[in-house]
Amino acid sequence: MAACQTEKKEINFPKTDLANAPLIPKPIKTIPTGSAFGLDASTAIYTSITDPEFEKVGQFLSKSIKEKIGLDVTVNVSTEEKLERLIYINQSDSSDLESPESYQFYIKKDSILLNAKTAAGAFRGVQTLRQLIPETSNDTLTDQPMWVIPSGKIVDAPKYGYRGSMLDVARHFFTVEEVKKYIDALAYYKFNTLHLHLSDDQGWRIEIKSWPKLTEVGSASEVGGGEGGFYTQEEYKDLVTYAADRHITIVPEIDMPGHTNAASLSYPFLHYAGAETPRVRTDMKVGYSSFDARKDTVYSFLDDVICEIAGMTPGPYFHIGGDESHVTKKSDYIYFVEKVEEIVQKHNKRMIGWNEIAQAEINSNSIAQLWNEPENALKAAENGSKIIISPAKRAYLDMQYDSISEYGLHWAGYIPVDVGYKWDPETYVEGISKESILGIEAPLWSETISNSAELEYLAFPRIIGYAELGWSISEHLNWEDYKERLAAQVPYLEAMQINYYPTKLVDWERE
Ligand code: ACM
To answer: pTM of whole model > 0.90?
Structure first.
C-alpha cells in the first residue's frame, strides 16, 4: 500500500483556441492544442543568458505583464519555492528560424517556450504573447487569479525586413514624449523602423552643433504659426535608445535639395537663385525652395550635418528626402543627389530617398522610397536598388478617411480603413518583384495635426493594417478576417489611451 498522497489538482481550463486569438499581424502558423497555460503569481520568466539582450527582452515582458494585468513576474530570479509555471525565452540556433526576427512558441499547460535566434526575434515573439494575455483573469480555476493563455504552437517570421512608419516632426513639432508613445504602439504591432522627417520648409528640428542657427533661427516656426521646436542632440539620442530598446531603428531624414526654406533662412548662402527668397513659412505650399547645388560650401555644410546626425544614429540608413524639388533644374538636381550620396556613404550610411532620386545614377546600395512615381521606383529597381513601398494613395496616414473625417488632406484621395488594408505591397507596382522590395512604410505628414490625439486619430486604426501588410504572408491578408481581429484591439488602444478613428466599417468591441 502506498502511503497517503495528495493528488495534484488538475485545472479544468475553459475552452480556449489559439487559432481564434485575434493576433495582429497574423502569424504564419498557429497550431492549437486545445488546452491552456495559466499565468499567475506562481509564474516566473527565465531567459538565455548567453546574450544579455535576451534578459532585457524578458524584463520588457515582465514590465508589460505588470502594466497590463498588475501581476509581478520575476525574471531570472532563482527561488527556493517550487515553481508552478515557467516562461522561457530561449536563444536558439534552430534552422527553422530563418530570419533574424523569426520566432516560435510552444505553449503548454505548465510552460511557455519562446525560441528565437536573436533578441529582436524574441522581442517580436513577446508582442505576440502580450496580445495573447487576456485583460481579465479567471478567478474560479484556482484560489488565486489566473490569466488563461490558449495552448499550441506558433511559427512566425516577417515577410519584409523593413516595416516602418514615418512621422513628420517638421510641419508640426512633436515632443520626445509624444514620439515615444508612438514608438510604443509601433513596437506592439511588430514594426521595426521609425523614419523621422526632421527638416522641411516650415522648420528644422535637430540640433547641429557646428551650425547652431539651424535651430536658433530655423526651428522657431511651424504650419499655422505655432512655436515649433527641435530635439537637442541628447534628446535625439534618447529617442534612438528608446527605439532600440524596442528593436526599432530610427531613420533620420534631412529633406533636400527642396523643402529647405528653414535651413536657407538660417544660413542664406545655402539658397538657390531659382528658389523663392527664404522667409518664415507657416503655410502648406511645397516645391518653392532649394539648396544651391553648385556651391562647394553647400556640400561642406551637408558634410557636417550628415556627419553629426550619422554619428548619433546606429541604424544603417540616412534619408536625404529628394522629393518635390520643383525649382531645382534637373541637371542640378541630379548633380546634387549624386554628390550627397557620396557624403552619406562616406559617413557609413546607406542612402534612402523619395522616388525622385532615381532620376540620378544612384548606387545599387541606395534605396528608393516609392510614394507617387512607379516609373522612377521601377527604374531604381532595374538598377539593383531596393524599394520601400509607400504609395500615397494607399499608405499615407495623413489622407482623410472620408469626406467627413477630421484632420488630414485628400490630394491623393480618401483612404478608408478597408482601402488602406486591401492591397498587397508585393503586387502593387507591376514589374517590381518581391526580391526588390525592402519593405513597406506608412508616412504620417503633419500639416493638419499637432499633438498625440490628432496624430493617433489619423494613424489608428490604419497603421495596424500596415503592420499586417508588412509582416504577414499574402495568403493571410483577408479583410473579413482582419476586421474581426482589428475590433478586438480596442482594449489595448483604450488601455494605452490611444485615440482612433472609429470607422463604421468595423464592429468595434467596446464596453
Ligand atoms: C512626399 O509626399 N512629398 C514624399
So the answer is: yes
